[in-house]
Hints:
Elements: E1 4-5, E2 12-13, E3 18-19, H1 32-45, E4 49-53, H2 60-68, E5 77-81, H3 99-113, E6 118-123, H4 132-144, E7 148-154, H5 158-165, E8 172-176, H6 188-194, E9 198-202, H7 234-254, H8 258-267, E10 273-276, H9 282-289, H10 298-307
Parallel strand pairs: 3-4, 4-5, 5-6, 6-7, 7-8, 8-9, 9-10
Antiparallel strand pairs: 1-2
Amino acid sequence: MEYRTFGTTDLKVSPMCLGCMSMSGVYGPTDDTESIATLHRAFDLGINFLDTSASYGNGHNHELIAKAIKGRREKIVIHSKSGSPRLPDGSGLRGGSTSDYLTKTCEESLKRLGVDVLDIFCMSRVDPNVPIEESVAGMARLIEQGKVRYIALSEASATSIRRAQKIHTIVSLQMEYSLWSRDPEDGNIQACREFNMGFMAYSPLGRGFLAGAIHSLKDIADGDSRGTHPRFHPDNIEPNLQLLARFEEFAKEKSVTPAQLALAWLMAQGEDIIPIPSSKTRRHLEENFKAIDIKLTKEDLARLDMIMPPGAAAGTRTRDMDRVNI
Length: 326
């Protein structure tokens, strides 16, 4: 495993980060025993980078990770997002960028994870009603207090990144990025590179679509959050399936799985781009892991751009577009 220096930090991380979101019920039923086994298998393979959030399972995700990292804490880099304020029923609310909320969430995260310090604490969303300068100043105080090593942003625009950097060093940006969600290429990645920031690509498999997990709306189980996603809407699914068919055909030509091809494409975009595929089983983890060794040629990349050019996907990438890239 060739580890990379993450942004301007002293952290050495694997070229792929394990996303833990699906271990807490977002994409249907989960099994804690298998999730922990998946985390342990990831560590055995050399993956030392985890992405989680205070909002995943209302704390369940953190408690799960706490069990998995016992005796291994010093070898694992934890990137934890603040999430958004939640009601008792788990539904989300707007906001989550005030200093008080960020401090409270950080302290709760430390307790649930059973750790003394978060390696990277990331604000999940920029609140247009709270100046980014205030939010970053609040997170910077957590560094001064020894509760956080580094701070990061998620779904922040290029403008917000530049404003934030004037207050305190921001080490990374997390944003949806995949072959069918190319928004970061419109300025976010450029802004990150201006400051030598890492870039964490969430939903690198298009919420499982690019992995071939969904070929019909019947493949979306009850309770699966994808059922309300714009790109899986009845009006959008068919044109997106046509894109997928061409993509799957190319993966077959390359003798790789669609998931591996999608992840290899992301890692070919630059060493600063780290995909965060979410896996809740060892089988999917091991399939994704093999993408690290896939090298795509210039011709391969050009072919993929033809198969799935920017803006090709039908439907917006999220149902809350007013909460992203702010």
